[in-house]
């Protein structure tokens, strides 16, 4: 059985505290998928990679003893004991299916035999050689709560329909193109997606669609509904946008798996007897054993709906067209790449105090994202490398009149009272300063090159060094956290130790121009918070304490570990607070949804206060989550949900 420390390997690798990361991941699972999936995720997070039988066994152990560990945080409830008591094979398979479809759990094949057993032909023939092992990644769990942020970027870049497709993929996790289009059409025809329905009113009116009749027969005529002309018309309009998202790398292929690998199907009876390998594979849930596709799969349609405790998930037939179809999933790497680029562009825009610089760099980011997405799909568009978004005219006269960049320049020129040509030259000079290395033997943060462009015009090509720029952003984020938590003297001391390496306490007070008592108190605060550590430097070989210097240094990975832990703890507390308000005022919020005129209700002031509090917490959660993304996702962001 895997060691328990395997459960924290991912957190340690990416400088995140498992004491905060794991409870937060469980809380997100419970919020989005219900208590059953949260219980299975809790077992995998606590115990590490497990086989299917081990998951069932560990769930029973949780049921009887209900252990609490140091990974629990105050205010976060574990899955109820009743949930573990009712977990059976069907529910665990359905939960694993949902987690695999959302790319939160991966299945690997591990040998059950030692090297000595494998070298013995008789032992290898009589023992089961392989079994499936399920491992969960808490980073991918956190990605689902960022869908709203990423949808906004897709809306601006590709339009409303692309945003709706991203929303559907967040609900389904992964599916074939036909499955996504079917699900999208059904939600519109059942009036489950009013925002998308408003964009297809012309199709609905053309076919005289009756919502009441469709909702009354929701569970009966699903297949017949998809065969109607109205559904075909909706899918025909959405299909080109889906292909566009695949082309740009926003949607990528899911890893190849059979439907039985997700818990569906069973071996045929004629192949079952006497085949230990197939029996073990059936228990592990990684293959159906006879090499044939099953006729159906236990798949909850709309995976955000909690799996019921007292029944199996509905079975959806898998027709011949969808059996061997290509499955797609959201490319979280693309969204992280885009978020990183926008962050860098806004950072340099604020640093230089110029919206024009920010707009120029945002254009560079937009081009880089498209090129990155094309590289993720394995293809490429030769015209994309010549996209005008990466080129900036070397003189203002070459800018088109309707260019948004020209409008920003006009606004700045009117505000500052300078000529447009002079202002544009100043902006380019600022970019030129960025292109010069800050220190000897270092590379530039933004490189520029002036050369010939299309039509014989002189253009300036701009490239951003994202890695170095994001390090500056992370450093600035950590300094702001230090200043907010410990004051401006703490920021000054930390910045000084970053530059000088190591200093004694008396030297810190002198160089920071602080009172020795205040400096000592501040240094001890930073040491307790995990930013600094004390190092003994003996001047003599006998280690005489009178000849030993005590130096304070910046702790390695402090800029990654401490801000991420603080942000995770804050994010967890905000989510707990938001859920407490929603659960306490559930009746009030329900009355607001059912009553058309809430202003006439006597509890209207309470409804407004509750709504305002929930909205404020919602925005605070997303703001803090951006800090988590800054501190944790860019160390090795290529490992989160990319193309497989």
UniProtKB/TrEMBL annotation:
Region named Disordered: 263-303
Localization: Nucleus
Pfam families: WHD_POLR3C (PF22536)
Compositional bias annotation for Basic and acidic residues: 269-285
InterPro entries: POLR3C_WHD, RPC3, WH-like_DNA-bd_sf
Keyword terms: DNA-directed RNA polymerase, Nucleus, Transcription
GO cellular component: RNA polymerase III complex
Molecular function terms from GO: single-stranded DNA binding
Occurrences of domain DNA-directed RNA polymerase III subunit RPC3 winged-helix (ranges): 481-554
Family to which this protein belongs: Belongs to the eukaryotic RPC3/POLR3C RNA polymerase subunit family.
Subunit field text: Component of the RNA polymerase III (Pol III) complex consisting of 17 subunits.
Primary role: DNA-dependent RNA polymerase catalyzes the transcription of DNA into RNA using the four ribonucleoside triphosphates as substrates. Specific core component of RNA polymerase III which synthesizes small RNAs, such as 5S rRNA and tRNAs.
Name of the featured protein: DNA-directed RNA polymerase III subunit RPC3
Organism: Hondaea fermentalgiana
């Amino acid at each position: 059985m895997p060691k328990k420390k395997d459960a924290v390997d991912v957190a340690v690798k990416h400088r995140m505290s498992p004491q905060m990361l794991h409870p937060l991941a469980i809380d997100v699972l419970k919020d989005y998928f219900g208590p059953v999936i949260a219980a299975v995720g809790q077992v995998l997070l606590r115990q590490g990679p497990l086989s299917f039988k081990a998951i069932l066994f560990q769930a029973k152990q949780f049921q009887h003893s209900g252990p609490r560990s140091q990974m629990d945080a105050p205010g976060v409830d574990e899955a109820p004991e009743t949930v573990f008591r009712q977990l059976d094979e069907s529910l665990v398979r359905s939960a694993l299916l949902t987690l695999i479809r959302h790319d939160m759990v991966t299945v690997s094949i591990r040998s059950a035999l030692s090297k000595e057993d494998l070298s013995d032909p008789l032992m290898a023939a009589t023992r089961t050689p392989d079994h499936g092992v399920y491992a969960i990644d808490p980073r991918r769990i956190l990605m689902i709560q960022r869908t709203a942020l990423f949808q906004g970027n897709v809306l601006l870049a590709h339009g409303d329909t692309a945003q709706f497709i991203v929303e559907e993929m967040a609900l389904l996790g992964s599916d074939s193109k036909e499955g996504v289009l079917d699900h999208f059409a059904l939600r519109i025809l059942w009036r489950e997606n009013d925002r998308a329905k408003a964009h297809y009113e012309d199709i609905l009116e053309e076919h005289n669609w009756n919502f009441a009749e469709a909702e009354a027969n929701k569970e009966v005529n699903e297949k017949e509904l998809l065969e109607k002309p109205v559904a075909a018309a909706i899918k025909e309009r959405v299909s080109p946008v889906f292909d566009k998202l695949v082309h740009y790398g926003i949607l990528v292929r899911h890893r190849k798996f059979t439907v039985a690998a997700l818990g569906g199907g069973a071996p045929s009876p004629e192949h079952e007897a006497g085949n230990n390998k197939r029996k073990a594979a059936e228990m592990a849930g990684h293959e159906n054993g006879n090499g044939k596709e099953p006729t159906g799969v236990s798949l909850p349609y709309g995976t955000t709906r909690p799996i019921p405790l007292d029944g199996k998930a509905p079975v959806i037939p898998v027709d011949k067209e969808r059996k061997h179809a290509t499955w797609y999933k959201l490319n979280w790497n693309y969204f992280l790449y885009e978020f990183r680029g926008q962050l860098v562009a806004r950072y340099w825009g604020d640093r230089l105090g110029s919206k024009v610089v920010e707009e120029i760099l945002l254009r560079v980011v937009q081009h880089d994202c498209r090129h990155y997405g094309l590289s993720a799909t394995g293809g490429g568009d030769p015209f994309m490398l010549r996209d005008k978004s990466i080129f900036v005219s070397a003189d203002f006269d070459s800018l088109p009149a309707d260019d948004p960049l020209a409008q920003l320049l006009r606004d700045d020129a009117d505000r500052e009272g300078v000529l447009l040509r002079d202002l544009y030259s100043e902006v380019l000079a600022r970019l030129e300063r960025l292109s010069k290395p800050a220190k000897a033997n270092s590379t530039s943060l933004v490189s520029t090159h002036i050369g010939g462009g299309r039509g014989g015009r002189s253009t300036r090509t701009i490239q951003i060094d994202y890695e170095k720029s994001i390090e500056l952003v992370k450093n600035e984020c950590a300094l702001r956290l230090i200043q907010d938590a410990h004051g401006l003297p703490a920021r000054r001391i930390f910045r000084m130790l970053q530059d000088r390496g190591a200093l004694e306490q008396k030297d810190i007070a002198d160089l920071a121009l602080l009172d020795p008592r205040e400096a000592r108190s501040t240094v001890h605060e930073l040491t307790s918070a995990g930013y600094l550590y004390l190092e003994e430097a003996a001047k003599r070989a006998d280690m005489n304490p009178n000849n030993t210097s005590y130096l304070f240094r910046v702790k390695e990975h402090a800029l990654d570990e401490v801000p991420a832990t603080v942000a995770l703890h804050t994010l967890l507390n905000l989510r707990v607070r938001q859920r407490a308000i929603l659960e306490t005022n559930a009746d009030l919020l329900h009355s607001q949804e059912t009553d058309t005129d809430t202003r006439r209700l006597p509890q209207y002031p309470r409804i407004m206060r509750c709504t305002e509090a929930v909205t404020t917490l919602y925005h605070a959660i997303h703001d803090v989550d951006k800090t988590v993304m800054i501190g944790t996702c860019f160390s090795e962001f290529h490992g989160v949900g990319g193309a497989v």
